[in-house]
From TrEMBL:
Catalysed transformations (reactions): 1-(5-phospho-beta-D-ribosyl)-5-[(5-phospho-beta-D-ribosylamino)methylideneamino]imidazole-4-carboxamide = 5-[(5-phospho-1-deoxy-D-ribulos-1-ylimino)methylamino]-1-(5-phospho-beta-D-ribosyl)imidazole-4-carboxamide
Recorded metabolic or biological pathway in which this protein acts: Amino-acid biosynthesis; L-histidine biosynthesis; L-histidine from 5-phospho-alpha-D-ribose 1-diphosphate: step 4/9
CDD domains: HisA
Compartment(s) where it occurs, according to its Swiss-Prot or TrEMBL record: Cytoplasm
Organism: Pseudogemmatithrix spongiicola
Protein name as annotated: 1-(5-phosphoribosyl)-5-[(5-phosphoribosylamino)methylideneamino] imidazole-4-carboxamide isomerase
GO molecular function: 1-(5-phosphoribosyl)-5-[(5-phosphoribosylamino)methylideneamino]imidazole-4-carboxamide isomerase activity
Keywords on record: Amino-acid biosynthesis, Cytoplasm, Histidine biosynthesis, Isomerase
Entry keyword annotation includes Isomerase: yes
Enzyme class, UniProt record, top EC level: isomerase
GO biological process: L-histidine biosynthetic process; L-tryptophan biosynthetic process
Family under the similarity heading: Belongs to the HisA/HisF family.
EC number(s) stated in the UniProt entry for this protein: 5.3.1.16
Gene assigned in the entry: hisA
Listed InterPro entries: Aldolase_TIM (IPR013785), His_biosynth (IPR006062), HisA/PriA (IPR023016), Isoase_HisA-like (IPR044524), RibuloseP-bd_barrel (IPR011060)
Amino acid sequence: MLAIPAIDLRDGHCVQLVGGDYAKEAVRLDDPLRVAQRWVAAGFSRLHLVDLDAATGRGDNRELLRELITRSGVPVQVGGGVRDAEAIDALLDEGADRIVVGTRGVEDPEWLAEQADRAPGRLVLAADVKGRTVVTRGWAKESTREIVELVRELEALPLAGLLVTAVQKEGKMQGTDLALMADVVDASPWPVIASGGVGTLLDLRSLEDRGVAAAVLGMALYTDALDARIVAEEFAE
């Protein structure tokens, strides 16, 4: 299993939110590029970049994303507010390895199918989940579908992976939703990337035991609950 540090961008800063709540910002760092270089120096081989402002319609961090893509030194997957073909093409042209598509991919399956066919193996579908229900628009809007139902609807698409975030666990470091992740792994034809709740090495090993391909890490790295070098060494693939 691969461990991937998250760099969540808000107002030009690197932040960490608790429980997906924009009013509960627990970490704010002034230099996202330095943060990226720190994780690469620790041994991580991929980064997960998210433009929180774009995801919620509060603006964007496009120039900062461009800098991170070109200067991080490792492959990056980029998401947050990616809702049209032009944004996908621009990020790919700038050097992003994979593009994470959330809200529009969930709400407009025909559009997602078109984009996946245009860029096979380059799109990751992000499904943010409360309980088992998929939420969109920066965790603010509940859809009418459960996650396994969504996977089955889209299983023929040539996606690079499925990123599942347990929103109620996000930023709390109190353990992952293992039952959710196991069910998604069983249903998904694509590699599953887990996010939300990781606080210990045991959490990571439990995800790996359930067939999860990668885990996005946030709060546990930023608060040093996890030793970055140890994690990068053990979860390198």
